[in-house]
Design a protein that fits this description.
By secondary structure, the chain is of the alpha+beta class. The chain folds into three domains: 34-310 and 510-534, Metalloenzyme, LuxS/M16 peptidase-like (Cytochrome Bc1 Complex, Chain A, domain 1), CATH 3.30.830.10; 547-746, 2-Layer Sandwich (Cytochrome Bc1 Complex, Chain A, domain 1), CATH 3.30.830; 771-975, Cytochrome Bc1 Complex, Chain A, domain 1, CATH 3.30.830.10. It contains 38 helices and 25 strands. Strands 3-4-8-5-7-6 form a six-stranded mixed β-sheet, with helices on both faces. Strands 14-15-19-16-18-17 form a six-stranded mixed β-sheet, sandwiched between helices. The protein is globular. The two termini are 46 Å apart.
Length: 977
């Protein structure tokens, strides 16, 4: 019977793949006087323009929502950093937010001589070796920087994007690219383009030494990240010649200590050229109108001869190279092979092989390692860059298992691949699943923009046709070709990166320089910014959900059914949403994990995973504290098969004692590893601070209770799961009536639901005095969170809370960011806000955060305490925050299954209509005094719990004791086991 099932499924999948294959060919079109190139059958309908000055413009129209994703991509990253100034491209990315001679300044004529003086001082500083003299020069840099800051306006760029309505101002640098990103409302195109054109016209590198300190912080955070250290060492071994491995994006400590503004300017002039940049926009656009506007605004750019990084080919790797890395986190390993250039046949094969080995369901590693729990986890992936790719096998050992044991297990899967010990149907199934993902992803503007951005960075977009055709090309790959290639490729030519738990004695952190806080002039606005902010736009009317019209409510037996019909494609997503979770049954999360290893009367655990992968469907169980959800999704044509499989698994799963014992071991090992994770430790500290020793973080089974878990108890929970009260939600092509009819057959229910066990309740502590909760951890940085319980949530305050958070502690233009990072250079990452819970019966949380160097901890705490005590006033920043808050609601569109999610979230808060309706109306009358009063009532003069994770070797606990009652918690207290 199994053979017949899989044969039928494979036949269906092959049919899907064959029908989906298209021909992708380059064509040329002309419209509105502009020529462009496009690829036939491109689902994104992307147009590639080249302006007269060489600027590439990539546009994709998707008018479903009034928003546009924008990316300005530059083909310059750490590959093109000068060898004497690594990290330079990343520095420059930070400085492109600082303005020009027209914005970011009060008086550029007076500011410029001071900026020139700072640049000269840095050149002298970088050439000086005497420590005393360097300190003297830096003191002068600090002094002149303070003078220059009297003319600068910090974060004016962010203020303008906030006024425009951009919801995601950001940028990133990697080995081959620097990318500047925004997500803007479509009614603001004109002033947005004016801002972007000005931004790249003549950037001014102001407020440099405090921004440089933020980069120092970023470097130090990387030194605390064992995963990042592993990845950088892996690149170093795989690429002994290429800059992929010889230059890190953030740069060396030595180069960070000796920056050169002169070299940064040279770099900008060399690579930020129209013939080396692409302006990408995807969303609510009109091709013809937009290309005219872009051409007009960016015509000032002048092309210049360009010489990009042209490395010598790497010599073949002929032997395995093992490297040991040390750090405080848990053990793990990489086995990494050097791959091939983009869009080559070899890279396509490696991408396909990565899914044959590891796809989360039916790959060789999924079945042979993860299903059999031979390691804590194992997976494979292929990371493609322009010149080469990286094929990575990764894993974490379980208790009693060495990294060498893990290496052997991973390589055994490669041996199976080389022997052809895999089902050829995996190829067809992989293609079907990729096509399903593409169907979902290409409707997303950010995904569209990212795909085409990659095409530009790697080959100026000329191989977009190959990228689109790659999935169809995979469908034509034969098993023989994979086996032949695997035997040629996977030899002893890899890098083995072993991450051990232990002290990393090689770390040299970037030391804290003496910095005097600079002025931010938050209340000032340049004439250019004033024009951008005040320029009129055609308003976009908000569009709210009408729960009585946009949702369909029905029944399937005794279960409530909520649906939204998908009229766009053949994809469905359905859930069984149970009104209970781990606070009702401690064993429920373990039962959900156990299920993936169990067989039924008909199918083995492995067969079940393969079946879901073959029909391009998925299922999962997510156990929350008070809600448990079974998710099923995939191709609607396979809806009945997918649901039937889930029903069979839940109703007929059989105990597997060996799997349970392995699961217990993995759970205990995961718990050990969690105690080595600084983020987990910080989360535990916060939970302890909010609730005391009986808190959500520690709630669960003890280690002894885990060891005594019985199969019968877990199986009983699983077999009876659908007997508990649940709501069925569905987004897909079916109508409510048709779905309900199907569900009565596929999802049989009793006449009444079983009553769940009582929900565990936790008692919030009263934050009536300052307390310090400290955990010792071997790290360069100090992680500091302020937390206090703020009382039960009142949804009528949603507008006030949203506006306060935007003004005070969210985003680069917020008061907290401008003060802590921009002015005082105390942290790379910082925020603060008033956080609301998911349901009415839980309290709000007042929270603040700073991640700082350990030697800045006291200053960082003092700086944040000042802001918590007294909020700086900036009417202009407030006005921008309010405009942004209103614009955010006006331009947001909740669609598809998001309508159901929003309804359920509002229902948990006691709302019977779209909560944004009240929030929008309540925003309008708010003024600054309301926000100031909110701060006074909820932040100022209040007691706080300070939750701090740092190394006792690098901070003085006596300093912490001055803040309040000092409590050093051990890991058993924090984790409860």
């Amino acid at each position: 019977m199994k053979i017949k099932l899989f044969t039928l499924i494979s036949f269906l999948v092959v049919g899907i793949v064959v029908q989906a294959q298209n021909t992708y060919q380059w064509k040329t079109g002309t419209s509105a006087g502009y020529s462009y190139k496009y690829v036939t059958n491109d689902p994104t309908k992307t147009r590639f323009y080249t302006l007269k000055n060489g600027l590439t413009v990539i546009l994709s129209q998707n008018n479903k929502e009034p928003n546009i994703v924008y990316k300005m991509a530059v083909r310059a990253g750490s590959n093109t950093d000068p060898k004497t100034n690594t990290g330079l491209a990343h520095y420059l990315e930070h400085l492109l937010f600082k303005g020009t001679d027209k914005f970011g300044t009060l008086n550029y004529a007076k500011e410029k001589p001071l900026l020139d003086r700072i640049e000269t001082l840095y050149e002298t500083y970088s050439k000086t070796t005497d420590p005393a003299k360097r300190k003297e020069i830096y003191a002068e840099i600090d002094k002149v920087s303070g003078e220059a800051s009297t003319y600068s306006i910090a974060n004016e760029y962010d203020k303008m994007t906030k006024a425009i309505g951009s919801s995601s101002t950001n940028a990133h640098t990697s080995v081959e690219k620097t990318v500047y990103e925004e997500d803007l409302p479509s009614n603001a195109i004109d002033k947005f383009l004016a801002l972007q054109a000005e931004r790249f016209r003549a950037p001014v590198f102001r407020i440099f030494h405090t921004e440089l300190e933020a980069v120092y912080e970023e470097k130090n955070r990387g030194l605390d990240d064992d995963g990042r250290k592993m990845y950088e060492k892996m690149l170093n071994v795989l690429f002994p010649t290429h800059n992929y491995g010889q230059q890190t994006t953030i740069g060396t400590v030595e180069h960070l200590k000796n920056p050169s503004l002169t070299e940064i300017r040279k770099y900008y002039n060399k690579y930020y050229l129209p013939n080396n940049m692409a302006l990408i926009m995807s969303g609510d656009i009109n091709y013809d109108d937009l290309i005219k506007k872009i051409d007009k605004d960016f015509s000032y750019m002048v092309a210049k001869p360009l010489s990009l990084y042209n490395p010598a080919p790497e010599k073949p790797l002929t032997q395995t190279q093992k490297v040991d890395i040390y750090g405080p986190s848990a053990e793990s390993l990489y086995l990494a092979y050097r791959g091939y250039a983009q869009n080559t046949r070899q890279s396509l094969l490696l991408d396909l092989i990565s899914s044959i080995l590891s796809n989360g369901k039916a790959g060789l590693m999924d079945i042979n390692i993860n299903k059999q729990q031979k390691m804590l986890r194992a997976n494979a992936g292929y990371n493609q860059m322009k010149d080469y790719g990286i094929f990575i096998l990764s894993g974490s050992p379980k208790t009693g298992q060495s990294l060498e044991d893990g290496q052997k297990l991973l390589l055994e899967q490669i041996d199976l691949l080389k022997k052809g010990a895999f089902d050829e149907r995996l190829i067809n199934a992989t293609v079907a699943n990729i096509k399903l993902a593409e169907l979902e992803n290409f409707d997303n503007n950010d995904v569209r923009a990212n795909y085409t951005m990659t095409a530009f960075i790697q080959n100026r977009g000329t191989e977009w046709d190959k990228m689109l055709a790659s999935t169809d090309a995979m469908a034509k790959v034969t098993k023989k070709e994979i086996v032949d290639f695997a035997n040629q490729f996977f030899v002893n030519n890899y890098a083995a990166i072993f991450k051990h738990k232990g002290e990393d004695k090689s770390i040299i952190k970037v030391e804290k320089p003496a910095i005097t806080a600079v002025q931010t002039n938050a209340n000032e606005v340049s004439p250019f910014a004033k024009n951008i902010i005040s320029a009129p736009v055609k308003p976009i009317a908000p569009k709210f959900i009408d729960y009585t019209k946009d949702l369909n409510f029905g029944k399937a037996g005794i279960a409530d059914v909520i649906t939204v019909q998908n009229t766009e494609n053949g994809i469905f997503s359905m859930s069984y949403r149970f009104d209970m979770g781990s606070y009702n049954y401690k064993l429920l999360p373990y039962a959900a994990q156990y299920l993936s290893f169990l067989r039924t009367n008909k199918y083995s655990s492995e067969d079940i995973s393969k079946a879901f992968y073959d029909i391009a469907c998925s299922y999962s169980i997510n156990v929350g504290t008070d809600v448990t959800t079974v998710y099923i999704s995939g191709l609607q044509e396979n809806f009945e098969k997918a649901v039937s499989l889930v029903e069979d698994v839940l109703a007929n799963c059989k105990p597997n004692e060996e799997a349970l014992e392995n699961l217990k071991g993995r759970i205990l090992k995961s718990r050990e590893n969690a105690k080595l994770n600084k983020s987990s430790i910080l989360s535990g500290l916060m939970s302890y601070a909010q609730y005391g020793s009986d808190n959500p973080f520690t709630y669960g089974l003890t280690n002894d209770e885990v060891k005594n878990i019985k199969s019968s108890d877990l199986i009983n929970l699983l077999h009876n799961l659908t007997n508990y009260n649940h709501t069925i939600t569905y987004y897909g092509p079916k109508t409510l009536g048709s779905l309900s009819t199907d569900l009565v057959k596929l999802h049989p229910l009793a006449k009444e639901f079983t009553t769940a066990a009582p929900l565990k309740k936790f008692v919030y502590t009263k934050t009536d005095s300052n307390k310090v909760y400290f955990a010792d951890y071997d790290m360069v940085q100090a992680e500091i969170r302020w937390v206090r319980n703020g009382g039960l949530y009142d949804p009528s305050q949603s507008a006030e809370i949203s506006l306060f958070n935007k003004y005070f502690g969210g985003g680069m233009g917020s008061i907290v960011f401008q003060t802590i990072r921009e002015s005082k250079a105390l942290a790379y990452s910082t925020f603060a806000g008033y956080l609301v819970p998911a349901s009415r019966d839980k309290e709000t949380t007042v929270m603040a955060y700073v991640g700082a160097q350990a030697d800045k901890m006291n200053d960082a705490i003092a700086g944040m305490n000042e802001l918590l005590s007294e909020m700086p006033e900036s009417e202009k920043s407030y006005d921008l925050s309010k405009t942004f808050a209103l614009n955010e609601i006006q331009t947001s569109r909740i669609t598809k299954d998001g309508i159901i999610s929003h309804y359920l979230a509002d229902k948990r808060l006691g709302m019977d209509r779209d909560s944004r309706i009240d929030e929008y109306e309540n925003l309008k009358p708010l003024n600054f005094s309301d926000i100031k009063n909110f701060h006074r009532q909820n932040f100022s003069g209040k007691a706080y719990n300070y939750c701090i994770v740092a190394s006792e070797k690098k901070i003085n606990p006596a300093d912490l004791a001055k803040l309040g009652q000092f409590n050093k918690l051990n890991l058993n207290q924090i984790f409860g086991y």
